[in-house]
Amino acid sequence: MIVASFSLALLLLAPVADAAGVRFQRVDLISEVPGTFVNYDLPMFAMNPVTSGLRWVEQIQVVVDLPVDGLSTGLSLGAQSLFYEQPLVESAGLSWGLGLQTDLLLPKGFLADASWRYKRLRIGLGGCITSGATWANPNWSAWQLLPTVGVGIGRSAAKND
User: Fold this and answer.
1) Residue ranges of the domains in the chain?
2) Rounded to the nearest 10 degrees, how much is the dihedral formed by the CA atoms of 13, 16, 22, 23?
3) Do 113 and 94 form a contact (C-beta atoms < 8 A)?
4) Which residues partner with 131 through β-bridges?
5) How far apart (Å, rounded) are the C-alpha atoms in residues 75 and 60?
6) Are 131 and 108 in contact (CB under 8 A)?
7) First CA to last CA distance, the chain
8) Whether pTM exceeds 0.85
9) 30: which of 50, 105, 135, 151 fits an S-S bond (Cβ 3.0–4.6 Å)?
10) Going by C-beta distance under 8 Å and a sequence separation of 6 or more, which residues neighbour residue 128?
């Protein structure tokens, strides 16, 4: 129900976003933001599949390109991101990127990755550093470093697509 409502809202906002220069890029089925699903929830799947399944849905991220070259934003139920990505070896589909992670727009951490694109597939490997800050307790004194993995599908990697 939540995913259907989220999808309907995105569909209704599509004409407005297109007029503003915002363009759909991909859907991350495994998101690098915030990085906790692969590190904490996926290993617990056999012991608690319902919770792990809900956390998987929570981290699915819709990524859209913004009007600035290389800049995109990702939106999921559990986190948001602002990401800058540039080609590393364009002919091989390799890129590097840096990003900011938020939770309800509260800055929570940073992300760095290297990614590979082939047709509609994107695979990213990197790391993120996140704080335990919340709106109720905006304290950025404790940080954790996590490796990240991302798998997304969407528009072709070709610039003119």
Assistant:
1) 23-154
2) 60
3) no
4) 143
5) 8
6) yes
7) 32
8) no
9) 151
10) 32, 33, 34, 35, 101, 109, 110, 111, 112, 145, 146, 148
